[in-house]
Amino acid sequence: MDGVDVAACELALSGDTAELRPLGHTASGYPPELRERLLAALPPAATTAAELCELDTEVGRCFAEVAADALRRFGPADLVSSLGQTIYHWVEDGRARGTLQLGQPAWIAERTGLPVVADLRARDVAAGGHGAPLVGVLDSLWLGGEPGVSIALNIGGIANISVVGGAHPLAYDTGPGNALIDAAARMVTGGELAHDVDGAIAATGSVRADLLKVLLDDPYYALEPPKSTGKEHFNRAYLARVLDGCGRVDDGDLLATLTELTAATIADACRGADRVVASGGGTANPVLLAALRNRLADHGVPLGTSDQFGLPADGKEAYLTALLGFLTAHGLPGNVPGTTGARGPRLLGAITPGRAPLALPEPAAETPRRLRILRPEPEWRPRASR
């Protein structure tokens, strides 16, 4: 909920290869009042149907303006794909029962005139999956040609991994990425900071071993994958309950310990890999990356970022969303059952038409088996739709 990521890219199919050419990406903060309303609606807080309706509309309008700005900045497009803002992920007895993303796509279609693919998680959940992490489809195509076992790591509010090259496809949420760090930063600064910028607060403290042990005892970490979680579990109320039993904790020590928790839970999930390729907002936190690098070094696993493999670390999820919309438009599944737990491959999402009658490409004759990242062309100009 820090803001809205947007990316533009050219996508094409060439035999069994999907080609993705990044054209640019950026991020915009939510209007402060909207962000506070979104945070206030997160469980365990109570909310109303009226508030959810208003938030769905306001997030949709915000997405619409970000999309329109991206079209002005990066050039015309054929399709918009929106992953939405997760407000609740319903998991019961280890099984995902439902998921709710806000950001009404009709506002995007109305503002841009383009068809919009949205609500991308629900079909996977209906098919017995967790609806997350959906990044498995990109990672399996993108890193499948690398030798050995690669782990693609995304550090967002929740951290998730995709294991590529192992005995079976596997992807799941490892636990909190930035969620508890952000909650603590807001708590210790009285809301002045939305997150621990550059890990500055954590850098002033030391890891509290007793607090870290309590945090690591959370039952989620012992669950077998596939599994998923969210801010309905790892949130400020969760943090307050943990701190109630730990006595006084200095601000720096609290942030240092939560940073170490994220590093420890990620590193534990990455044992045995030949490499970890990281992306997401957490890669901008040097204290977190240093802690993670140290933890992974204990397991003999090197850490790099997705930039080294052609995908910008801070834009990867937006490019994933573009790929998911592209696959849906071409009649191709966007989930990897082994990573979400779904019963099989499924076409994802719902399509809201733009101003013109909806005209989709002919269904693809072949499912892609690899993803090639192409360099942006000099003085790029949009090509005809393919």
Helix content: 25-40%
Please give the order of strands in the largest beta sheet: 9-8-7-10-11
Task: Tell me what portion of residues adopts beta-strand conformation.
Answer: 15-25%
Could you give the distance between the termini? Answer: 33 Å
Rough outline: globular
Structural class by SSE content: alpha/beta
Give me the Rg, rounded. 20 Å
Level-1 CATH class name of the largest domain:
Alpha Beta
How many separate structural domains? 2
The CATH superfamily of the largest domain turns out to be: ATPase, nucleotide binding domain
Average pLDDT over all residues:
93
Question: What do you see in this structure?
Answer:
With 386 residues, the chain is of the alpha/beta class. It has two domains: 3-134 and 313-373, ATPase, nucleotide binding domain (Nucleotidyltransferase, domain 5, 2-Layer Sandwich); 136-309, ATPase, nucleotide binding domain (Nucleotidyltransferase, domain 5), CATH 3.30.420. It has twelve helices and 13 strands. The protein has helices at residues 32-41, 49-74, 105-112, 122-126, 136-143, 179-188, 209-216, 236-244, 251-269, 286-298, 316-329, 337-340, and strands at 3-14, 17-29, 80-81, 85-92, 95-102, 116-118, 150-155, 158-164, 170-176, 275-279, 303-305, 350-352, 370-373. The strands form four sheets. Strands 9-8-7-10-11 form a five-stranded mixed β-sheet. A three-stranded mixed β-sheet has the order 1-2-13, with helices on both faces. Strands 3-6-12 form a three-stranded mixed β-sheet, sandwiched between helices. Helix 2 packs parallel to helix 3 (105-112). The radius of gyration is 20 Å and the shape is globular. Residues 379-386 have low confidence and may be disordered.
